[in-house]
Amino acid sequence: MEGPPTVGVKIPIPPEYDRPLGALGKEEDWWTEHRDWLATCGYQLRRRYQADWTPSFKPGDWPDNYEDGVSIYKPVLDATRIVNGVEQDVILKRPPARAGSEEVETFELLTSEPLAADPRNHTAPLLTVLQVPDEPEKRLLVMPLLRLFDSPKFETFGEAIAFFTQIFEGIQFMHEHRIAHRDCTHNNIMMDPTGMYSVAFHPAKQNMRRDWKGKAKPRRTRTQLRPRYFLIDFGLSRFYPQSAGDAPMDLPVQGGDKSVPEHVNCHDPCDSFAVDVYYLGNLIREEFMMRYHGFSFMRPLVEDMVARDPSKRPKMDEVVARFKEIRESVNFWKLRSRMVPRKEWRIVGFPRSLGHWYRRLGYIITRKSAIPDP
C-alpha cells in the first residue's frame, strides 16, 4: 500500500485554468471562436473579444478595474446588435446542448402569440434565436439588456407592491399554461431599465458607466418610470400536460434558492407548482421583510407560501387573489413611505426621510401613482 503523498508535490493545473490573471477564460474562448460569424449576423462583441485586443491593464493590476478586464464565467455574453444602423445592447445566451432545446422551446412558446399579448405574461422579450452554423445542436437566445429587479434599490412600499403584483401574475400566467418555472429566484427576475439612466451602464458590470468614467447613477425612480419586471432563465422549466393535475409531481431540481424544504435531503417527486410558490414567498421574506421595516402586512401570505408542507401552500390563483386584498388595504401614506433598511442608523435616517418626502410631494403634485404599475 502506498503511503500519503509527499509534502510539497505540485499538483498539475488543468490547461484551461493555467492562464494569466485577466486573460480570456475557457468560457470566453467559444465567443471569440464565433466572433466573425456573430459579426455577419449583426452582433458586435466588446473590445475584449476582438482579434486585435491588447489588454489595457498591466501584469499585477486587478483586471476588473478595467473595462476590457471584465470577464464572464457563464454561457452568457453581452453584445451590440446593429440593425439598419440602429444599435441596441443585447444579451446572448448559449443554452447547454442537452437541455437547451427544451429551454428554447419554452421561451419561444411564452413569447409567441397569443401568449405574448397577455399583459400578465412577464417573460423577458426574445428578440430572435440564432442557429450556430458549426454546431447544429446549439442555438443562441437573443434578449434585450435588462437589470436585476432590485438594482437600484426600491424606495417606497408602493414600488415594492408594484413589483409583487407583476411577479405574482407572471408565475400565475405560467402555471395557467401548465409551465412551472422551477427557478424563479433572485437572479432570474429582471427589470426593464429603459429611460432610468441618462448615461448608459456597462452591460457586464452594471454599477459602472458604459464609458467607464465613473459609477452609473439612475436619473429617474421607479415611481417616475413605472418599470416592467421580467422572468428569465427557463433552463429548469417544465411543461406539464393537463393529465398531470393541479400538483404536477417531478423529481426535485435545485435552482438558486437551496432552502426548499422538499429538496433538502430528499429524492422523492414533489409538486413543481408548489415549489414556485415557495420561491416567491421566500424571495419576499428574505429580500424585503428581513431587510426592511414595515412589511408586516405581507406576513400572513408569505408564511403560507413558505409552509414546510407543500400541500398547505396556496396555489398561485389564491396568492394573486389574497394579494389583491392586501394591496387594496395599504393606505396612501404607507404606499408613499420610504422603505427603511433594518440596518440603517437613525442619525442618517432622519435626513434621508426629509429628502424622500420632499421628492414625494412633487410626485403627489404631478399625480404620479403611488403604485407605479406599467
How would you sum up this structure in a few lines?
This protein is an alpha+beta fold.
Helices and strands, with pairings:
Layout: H1 26-33, H2 35-40, E1 43-44, E2 76-83, E3 86-93, H3 97-110, E4 128-131, E5 139-144, E6 147-148, H4 157-176, E7 179-180, E8 189-191, H5 222-225, E9 229-231, E10 238-239, E11 249-250, E12 270-271, H6 272-289, H7 299-305, H8 316-329, H9 332-336, H10 346-365
Antiparallel strand pairs: 1-2, 2-3, 3-5, 4-5, 6-8, 7-10, 8-9, 11-12
Helix pairs in contact: 4-6, 4-8, 6-7
List keywords for this structure.
10 helices; 12 strands; Phosphorylase Kinase, domain 1; three-stranded antiparallel beta sheet; Transferase(Phosphotransferase), domain 1; alpha+beta; 12% strand; 374 residues; single chain
